[in-house]
Amino acid sequence: MTTSEDCQTLPKHVAIIMDGNNRFAKKNQLQKGDGHREGKNILDPIVDYCRSKHIQALTVFAFSSENWNRPQYEVDLLMQLLEDTIHEQMPRMEKYQIALRFIGDRSRLSPHLRDLMLHAEQRTAKFSSMTLTIAISYGGMWDMAEAAKQIAADVLANKVALEQIDSTLFGQYVCLGDLPPVDLLIRTGGDYRLSNFLLWQAAYAELYFTPTLWPEFSVEELDDAFHVFAGRERRFGKTSEQIQQEKLEN
């Protein structure tokens, strides 16, 4: 059971860069694509655990803007796995009242996949136990450029005054602007970079890097990441003394 003290130290929004599928396949001498298939199955227990801990939002990086440059067979496989994931997740989303969303540039996706994503979003839009977001054809720089474009259009349409534009307003235009900012960003696979993922939303996120390959990532290690997060002092530009004083006052 999650206590009130746990809720204070747990992140509200967790983001995961699910890296290491191909290396997992090579390590275990599997066929091409099998690493991605194994990785797809890891998501269910991670979602369940986050829901049990009352995490408000979980956002996972499934396919980046740059991943279109991968071999065509791998791109095709990832698109098929995304379709399979949507079909498999829908009964669980409805059972546990989880809202399912997708972020990214949908223009390069097939009409069938776009329709499937939209239908899933519409069916789960009113669910409120947690929000699961899958980033597909997504890039943080694309996200911010799109936000800037939308703000410019609203300025031209006299919906927004130039003087109103600040970081708060901009944050309402990027993807997931209605959700809490990312508190904890986890990257599996051993690389130490953000790879153009949620650059705006994760501006003050605590970063957790692990060499564990995504298909080997477990609920136990996710819980370890939560403990590491709980032990971090989040200052947001303030001093440690200020943070300690605020804790005393609260």
TrEMBL record:
> Which residues are noted in the entry as Mg(2+)-binding?
D19, E206
Cofactor: binding details: Binds 2 magnesium ions per subunit.
Q: Name one GO cellular component term.
A: cytosol
Q: Name one Pfam family in it.
A: Prenyltransf
Q: Which domain of life is it from?
A: Bacteria
Q: Which Gene3D superfamilies match?
A: Decaprenyl diphosphate synthase-like (3.40.1180.10)
* HAMAP family attached to this UniProt entry: ISPT
Q: What is this protein called?
A: Ditrans,polycis-undecaprenyl-diphosphate synthase ((2E,6E)-farnesyl-diphosphate specific)
Protein species of origin: Acinetobacter indicus CIP 110367
Q: Lineage of the source organism? A: Bacteria, Pseudomonadati, Pseudomonadota, Gammaproteobacteria, Moraxellales
